[in-house]
Amino acid sequence: MSTIQIDVSIRNNTLICGVNGGNVLGVPGNRIRWRSGDKTQNFTLEFFRLAAEPAQEPRSDCEPLNVSELAHWPFTEPEPNSGVVGPINEFSGTLKKEGDPTAYKYYVTVGNLRLDPVVIVDR
Predict the structure, then answer these.
(1) Which domains does the chain have, with CATH numbers?
(2) CA–CA distance, 16 with 48 (Å, rounded to integer)
């Protein structure tokens, strides 16, 4: 499988992730690597699973999901105890298979700057 690299940097007091905002469309087995070009510039990562609106009709029969109960770690590697990766200057994770396509929102934080791209795991 392939590796998707996301460079994390700060330019003009703006957090920059990757070449397209840090959003990822991957398949199970893809590795995602976040890295800071400046070895002294550490960042943290935190992941949240997103729920999608139901496709069936009528929508009134659908119960809302409690997204806090959904698994929020998208990788095969063990989840950190705090659920937050870092502060570090490089992290790699291998996307796991969840069944249906799954989307995750994640935070990249450097100091007081934060960006919230998405990771979509497709089949």
Answers:
(1) 3-54+66-121 (2.60.40)
(2) 20
